[in-house]
Amino acid sequence: MLPQTSFHISRIPSLILRSATTIRMPSNYCGRGSLLYSSSTRLLGSKAGVPGNPPGEIVLEDYQEALPNIDQDRLKRTVEQIREILGYTTYDLSLYLVEDELMQETNLETRGMNKPTDILSFPFHEPIEPGRLQEPEFQNIPDYFSLGEMMIDVPYVIRGCQEDSEFDNQQQDSDLVYDDNNSEEDRGVSGAMATVYDPEERIHMLLVHGMLHLVGHDHEQDDEYELMVQKEEEILIQLGMMDPAKGNQR
């Protein structure tokens, strides 16, 4: 079975900048650890100085053929819903649906790992704390109102669905009892996805995790992990992707 918790945050890869001209990055980026920070960031609220206070743009680029009929409009609606829950409706966000080769190249370039993964998140801003971004130095420049970018490897997600379905069938056919409520692996988005075998539905769940990374959540430390999975479960329940009773059991 593929590992469920293979989500990551990393730097904006130059290959994305080459392949998608819709990304607009300020010139003052600096790397800090595995996160990319900008010296000009924004707290949730209105676009001060921008006429009309418009909602943020959602850019979706589809570079994959594994799910040719994926509902892009529905994906954008899910992004809009999550963005509203997080309180950043005026911020732009880009989502890239890719295949293994591009994901593996990006993962190698940004994290030194020569293999594909399910999702990578590239934050645009530095958080004050999980879920809260700093005020920007320039409040009249629309390009600074961006949460960042996410890349999802669709074939990887499909394989995960297939392997988890096979694993579940094997468990049902065996005499072993698998108690997922006692597994620390099955929390938040990871736990919710474990019994969802439709790759398109999983992609919607992955958006929850990826967007939480964009606003400063992480899971490297135990306290960070606990906070993040609790927030994931809250959002999944709000979106109707998780049974409230299951979330309350945590």
TrEMBL record:
Recorded protein name is: Endoribonuclease YBEY
Annotated organism of origin: Seminavis robusta
Q: Which family does it belong to?
A: Belongs to the endoribonuclease YbeY family.
Protein keywords? Endonuclease, Hydrolase, Metal-binding, Nuclease, Zinc
Q: Does the keyword Zinc apply?
A: yes
Gene Ontology MF annotations: endonuclease activity; metal ion binding; metalloendopeptidase activity
| Chain residue ranges for the region called Disordered | 168-188
Which HAMAP family does its entry note?
Answer: Endoribonucl_YbeY
Cofactor dependence: Zn(2+)
Annotated GO biological processes are: rRNA processing
